[in-house]
Amino acid sequence: MQNGIMKDWLDSSHLYGANIAYVEELYEAFLEDPESVPDDWVAVFNALPHRSNIPDDVPLSPLKEYFLRLARDNNSRISSSAQDPQTGSKQVKVLQLINAFRFRGHQHAKLDPLELWKQPRVPDLDPAFHNLEDSDFNQAFNVGSYAIGRETMPLDELYRSLQKTYCGSIGAEYMHITDTEEKRWIQAHLESVEGCGNYSKDDQIRLLKSLTAAEGLEKYLGAKFPGAKRFSLEGGDSLIVLLKELVRSSGSAGLKEVVIGMAHRGRLNVLVNVLGKTSAELFDEFAGRHDSAWGTGDVKYHQGFSSDFATPGGNVHLSLAFNPSHLEIVNPVVIGSVRARQDRRGDSCLPITIHGDAAIAGQGVVQETFNMSQTRGYSVGGTVRIVINNQIGFTTSNPRDSRSTQYCTDIAKMVQAPIFHVNGDDPQAVAFVGQLALDFRNTFKRDVVVELVCYRRHGHNEADEPNATQPLMYQKIKKHPTPRKVYANQLTSENILEDSEVNSLSNGYRDQLDRGECVVEEWRPMTGHSVNWKPYLNHSWDIEYDTRLDIDKVKELAEKISIYPDSHKLHPRVRKVYEDRALMAKGEKPADWGFAENLAYATLLDSGAGVRLTGQDTGRGTFFHRHAVLHNQDDGSTYFPLKNLSDQQGPFYLYDSVLSEEAVLAFEYGYSTAEPESLVLWEAQFGDFANGAQVVIDQFLSSGEQKWGRMCGLVMLLPHGYEGQGPEHSSARLERFLQLCAEQNMQVCVPSTPAQVYHMLRRQHIRKIRRPLIVMSPKSLLRHPTAVSSLDELASGRFYNVLDEIDELIPEQVEQIVMCAGKVYYDLLDARRKAEQTNVAIIRIEQLYPFPYEDISQLLEKYQHVKQFVWCQEEPQNQGAWYCSQHHFFAAIPDNAKLRYAGREASASPAVGYMSLHLEQQRALVQDALTIK
Question: Where do the Transketolase-like pyrimidine-binding domain residues begin and end (predicted)?
Answer without folding.
Answer: 591-784
